[in-house]
Every structure is written in C-alpha cells, then in structure tokens.
Amino acid sequence: PTAAAPLAEPLTAREVEVLRLIAAGLRNQEIADQLFIGLSTVKRHVANAYGKLGVTHRTEAVARANELNVL
User: Fold this and answer.
1) Contact assessment for residue 11 and residue 70, using Cβ atoms and an 8 Å cutoff
2) Helix, strand or coil for residue 70?
3) How far apart are CA 65 and CA 44, in angstroms?
4) Distant-in-sequence, close-in-space partners of 68: CB < 8 Å, separation ≥ 6
5) CB atoms within 10 A of CB 53
6) Whole-angstrom distance, CA of residue 48 vs CA of residue 52
7) Distance from C-alpha of 18 to C-alpha of 44, rounded to nearest angstrom
8) Rounded CA separation 3/38 (Å)
9) Residue 68 per-residue DSSP state
10) How far, in Å, CA of 63 to CA of 38, rounded?
11) What is the pTM for the complete model shown?
12) Are 69 and 56 in contact (CB under 8 A)?
C-alpha cells in the first residue's frame, strides 16, 4: 500500500475539530450546538474539509483524516 499523499492545503483547527465530532457520530446540528456556532457555519467547515481531503461523504472524510493522522 502506498503512503497517503499529504494535503495541498492543510485543514484548519476548526475543520479538524468538526471532523473529530463527525467521527464521534454527531450530526451537524449537534456539532453546531456543542461549538456554539451556526448550522451553516458547520456545513461550511464540513464542505471545506471535504474539498481539502478530496472526499464526498462523512465516512470517507473520517477515513481519509485517519489515514493522514489528522484525527
């Protein structure tokens, strides 16, 4: 197996935090409530993280972040 390619643009601390909460099984609204931010802000962090990780789904995002030792 090949090593995971590093990210062209690193994830922000908030994107990592959101990914950790996704990995813990929280929904977007639960993440928003826990971080005291709006639902649209959570969705923006998720979309940005997906783009940086090159994924389209939550499970892919968590798997890719784990591959890269981000989580």
Assistant:
1) yes
2) coil
3) 17
4) 4, 6, 7, 53
5) 21
6) 6
7) 10
8) 36
9) T
10) 25
11) 0.89
12) no
Quote the tokens at residue 40. Answer: 């649209």
Q: How far apart are CA 11 and CA 30, in angstroms?
A: 21
Matching residue, tokens 């995002």? 61
Place of tokens 């690193």: 10
Query: Could you tell me the end-to-end alpha-carbon distance of the chain, in angstroms, rounded to an integer?
Result: 20
The H-assigned helical ranges of 2-71 are 13-23, 28-35, 39-53, 58-67
Interval 26-66: pLDDT, tens:
999 999 999 999 999 999 999 999 999 999 999 999 999 99
Distance CA 2, CA 17 (A): 27
